[in-house]
Each structure stands twice: as C-alpha cells, then as structure tokens.
Amino acid sequence: MSVLEIRNLHVSIEGKEILKGLDLTVKSGEVHAIMGPNGTGKSTLSYTIMGHPAYEVTDGEILFNGQNILEMETDERSRLGLFLAFQYPVAIPGVTLANFLRTALNARRKAVNPEDKGMPIPEFRKMLKEKMDMLRMDHAFAGRYLNDGFSGGEKKRAEILQMATLKPEIAVLDETDSGLDIDALRIVSEGVNTLRGKDLGVMVITHYQRILNYIQPDFVHVMLGGRIVESGGPELALSLEEHGYEWVREKYEGEAVNG
Does the keyword Ribonucleoprotein apply (predicted)? Predict the structure, then answer.
C-alpha cells in the first residue's frame, strides 16, 4: 500500500503564507475530495506536493511511503509514483502526445529498474491505443502536438491518458472539471473510475459537487484559511452543494475567535 502523508504543512508564495498547518493522509485504494472556496489554497496544495519551485515550504513534511520528498525535484517525485493533472494543461508544440508519453513512461520504468531498456515501440503503441479507446479518444490524437489546439475537454482527457499510461500510485486532479461540458466531464470521470482501485489513491480538488456525482469519493475534506477544517464522507459534499460554505466559515471563524 502506498501512503501520501502531509503533516503540519505551511507554504508561502512571494512571502505570503497560503497553507497554515495542513494535515492530510491519502492511501492507495482511497478517493479523497478536497473542496473549498476560491483562494483557500487548494491549488497551492497540489503544486507543493509536486514540488513547484515558486511555493516555499516553511514548516511541516510531505511523506510518500515514509520518505520525505520535500528536497526532491518534480521529476523525481513523478518517478516515485506521484502524478498531477493540471487545471490548465500547457501546450508543447513540436512534441507529439505519443512521444511525450513514451518518454515519461520509460523514465518511470527506469527509475524502478535501472536495467530497463524501455517499452518496445510495438508494445507501447498497442497499450496506448487500448488506453485511448477507454477514454474514447481518436487514435489520431497520438500524433498531435501535446495540448496544441486541443479543446478544454481534449486537454483534460489527455491528462487522464497520461495518468492511465504512467500508472501512478497517488494522483492529484487539480480542478479537472474546470471548463468541461457535461459530456466531457462524464467521459473524463469514467476514465478516472476505470483506473481507480486498490493500487491507486486519488485526490480530487474541486469547487463543486458536480464531478463527485461521477467520481464517488470515500472522504471529503473542506479547506478554509489554508487548513482542512472539516472532514466527512460523500454526504459532506452534498451539504456543501445545498448550503454553500458559509456555515463552515461561521463555525471555523467562531472556533478561531473562541480559541
């Protein structure tokens, strides 16, 4: 079993503290939803997990399978088995989706076994077509430049295709539902549901209940003021959909005043 453990995490960007003592544990086989209003630090959490250089960790730890990863570069974290699906995937003209995926996959395999010579091209093509069929992607996508000219839905499906190909142990989906219409959201969610299982832990970061209608979480956490202030099951997300975040603010701010 793989475990991502975040302990008392404090993170600043350009001198402003965003995360203020966040604690969270995600294990393989679990799906956690991270919800909260704008500006509370949800994306900061995802970028910090993957080692974005603009985010300074001032206190706390991030442990992956017992190993503190804070001194590791982003590519090292990825090769260990961490994955981030971006809210706004960037285009890389000149690099085809297939070449990008094969390079990333072979780097991951070599990290596990230094003697690995990489997946043979025929085997890779067969595997990639199977993954694309699962996500209902046209095979011609493999020859297109990564995210170059892709629609919002195509970009998000390409992110899930990366996840399917690399087989991470813990995956963070940073507002994957952002900018998707209902059909694209359903297809992307079906892809995630196909991949979920005992060997994959998933953290779904979102504002809305909408994606959680398709990806059923085991745990729901509410972020406010740079911390997780409320945790529960799927019913917590439904309560947020119905009542908004005001009751959480009132409860949290009341505790802060009384404390």
Answer: no
Q: pTM to 2 decimals? A: 0.90
Write out pLDDT tens, residues 17-60: 999 999 999 999 999 999 998 888 999 999 999 999 999 999 99
- For the chain, the maximum distance between any two Cα atoms, rounded to a whole number of angstroms, is 64
Long-range contacts of 226-232 (CB under 8 A, 24+ apart): 226/17, 226/18, 226/19, 226/20, 226/21, 226/22, 226/40, 226/41, 227/19, 227/20, 227/21, 227/22, 227/23, 228/22, 228/23, 228/24, 228/34
Are 41 and 205 contacting, i.e. CB atoms less than 8 angstroms apart? no
Mind spelling out the 3-state secondary structure of 13-46?
A: ECCEEEEEEEEEEEECCCEEEEECCCCCCHHHHH
Share of the chain above pLDDT 90, in %: 68
CATH 3.30.300.30 is the classification of domain 3-258:
no
